[in-house]
Specification:
Blueprint: H1 12-36, H2 44-64, H3 76-101, H4 109-132, E1 141-146, H5 150-158, E2 168-174, E3 189-190, H6 194-204, E4 209-212, H7 223-231, E5 235-238, H8 239-247, H9 257-262, H10 269-272, H11 275-311, E6 316-322, E7 328-334, H12 358-365, H13 373-379, E8 383-385, H14 392-401, E9 414-416, H15 418-422, H16 429-445, H17 448-464
Parallel strand pairs: 1-2, 1-4, 2-3, 4-5, 8-9
Antiparallel strand pairs: 6-7
Helix pairs in contact: 1-2, 1-4, 2-3, 2-17, 3-4, 6-7, 11-13
Length: 468
């Protein structure tokens, strides 16, 4: 299996963190039953079932608001806010859905309220303690980078923050013959005869992973030493795979065709193009439509009374975009801009775009404008998860300027996607290239489980109004 699929957290520290949080939630629920037992009899078997349900719901909601994002950067206030939202969502999930369907399991609203109050204190304290003492140090890999030129500098430039290096620590960069000069500070470059003593150096300094990142590989690497390191338990990995496993993206500027051909991944795509995928998406879209039609009706009325009645413009906006295999289709959205927004031709939407109406700004922030695309999903033009579709005018330009951009059309576009979770709002060619790195990662590793994680975590985008 490609090691890149480890992205998202399988290190010892992360396993301990998840285990610790699960135990705290169970303890909070049992503590609530113990406190309430002084006022009323509590069935202990029912209390145990409630503890498991409560823990599962809270952890699911924590995932949905980004609390399990290993690169989450929040101060105490930010963590507290996310924990509060998590507990609120978990309460709705339990009271409105689970206990409505199985009322015999319900121990009462007060029980869940007390559990949540205890969890608020324990979870916030645990997260602050965990991150303050940086417990991730216990499982960081000791990494030696073979290279100190342009390719190696990507690690130094793009992964220099502590949050980027939670899973590893860089021992140093080894200068390899053929590397370009001046990309890595001299203080971080290690000088030794790597051609004759790489294995001995790796053993002596307890190196756990070697990253191949030299600018010129042909006849430059000590293959016998790399072979010996590999057979003695030292992981040897390409820089492309290293970046992929640590960042959840594929470095487009480093890709070469043979890496794509021989690397693991991409094999699930054919299965996802089948009619089964369309039927699953269509059924889910019908359920979502049945639940959200009142919100869609209210949105349409608000847009109509805001400027639709005055201008005669439709509350919907139809636009040609590029779908799977490069085929155009007509996407449907709620109109969020003035009717004359593109009188001068197609142009990128920007942050704080002056063409956006007052109502449009709100529905765009919380992605309400995207809801009519449920009809595109039912029709089969889109899925729930996939790269966001783009307009043909922009695709034509981006294909010429960005390597491998056309490969994002190998799967159906989606209502939400990996790039929307991982990259902020963008409206330039450079932003499109950064998002492509995440789109290609998604295409390579696409599974039902990854789709499910993206769908759950889209709640974070909606609640906090981030990414598009």
């Amino acid at each position: 299996m490609n090691k890149a699929v480890r992205y998202g957290g399988n290190t010892l520290a992360e396993k301990l963190f998840l285990l610790g949080e699960m135990l705290l939630l169970l303890a909070s629920s049992f503590a609530a039953s113990f406190i309430l037992s002084f006022y009323q009899p509590i069935d202990q078997e029912l209390a145990a079932i409630n503890a498991v349900l409560y823990t599962g719901c809270v952890m699911l909601c924590a995932l949905s608001v980004g609390l399990y994002d290993q690169k989450l950067r929040e101060d105490t206030g930010g963590v507290l806010k996310r924990v509060l939202i998590t507990l609120f969502l978990a309460g709705i999930l339990l009271e409105v859905f689970i206990f409505s369907l199985i009322p015999s399991l319900h121990l009462g609203f007060i029980f869940n309220l007390v559990s949540s109050l205890i969890s608020l204190i324990t979870l916030t304290s645990f997260r602050m303690l965990f991150h303050y003492h940086d417990i991730t140090k216990i499982s960081r890999r000791r990494v030696l980078v073979l290279g100190s030129g342009e390719r190696a500098s990507i690690i130094e430039r793009r992964m220099r923050r502590n949050v980027d290096r939670k899973n590893f620590e860089i021992h140093g960069f080894v200068k390899i013959d053929g590397d370009q000069e001046g990309h890595i500070p001299d203080s971080k470059v290690i000088q030794f005869d790597y051609k004759t003593s790489l294995y001995e150096y790796a053993v002596e300094h307890e190196i756990e992973q070697l990253v191949i990142a030299c600018d010129e590989r042909r006849n430059m690497l000590p293959v016998e030493h790399l072979f010996k390191c590999k057979t003695r338990g030292v992981d040897v990995i390409e820089i492309l795979d290293f970046i992929e496993q640590e960042t959840g993206q594929i470095a487009v500027n480093l890709i070469y065709p043979s890496w794509v051909i021989y690397s693991n991944g991409f094999e699930m795509n054919h299965r996802f193009k089948t009619s089964l995928d369309h039927r699953l998406n269509a059924v889910l879209a019908l359920f979502v439509l049945a639940a959200l039609w009142p919100l869609m009706l209210i949105t349409a009325l608000v847009i109509y009374f805001d400027d639709g009645r005055r201008t005669g413009a439709s509350v919907f906006y139809r636009q040609i975009q590029i779908g799977i295999d490069g085929k155009p289709f007509q996407i449907l959205k709620f109109r969020s801009m003035r009717p004359d927004a593109e009188a001068g031709g197609a142009q990128w939407a920007t942050l704080n775009d002056s063409r956006v109406t007052k109502i449009g700004g709100f529905i765009r922030k919380y992605r309400i404008d995207e809801l009519p695309q449920l009809f595109n999903i039912i029709k089969g033009d889109m899925g729930f998860v996939g790269p966001r579709p783009e307009r043909p005018e922009f695709v034509e330009k981006l294909v010429k300027e960005i390597p491998y951009y056309n490969q994002r059309h190998n799967v159906k576009p989606g209502l939400t996607g990996w790039a929307q979770l991982k990259y902020p709002y963008g409206s330039t060619t450079e932003d499109a290239q950064e998002k492509l790195k995440f789109d290609l990662y998604y295409i390579k590793h696409r599974t039902l489980l990854l789709d499910l994680v993206i769908l759950i975590r889209t709640v974070e985008i909606v609640i906090f109004g981030k990414g598009r």
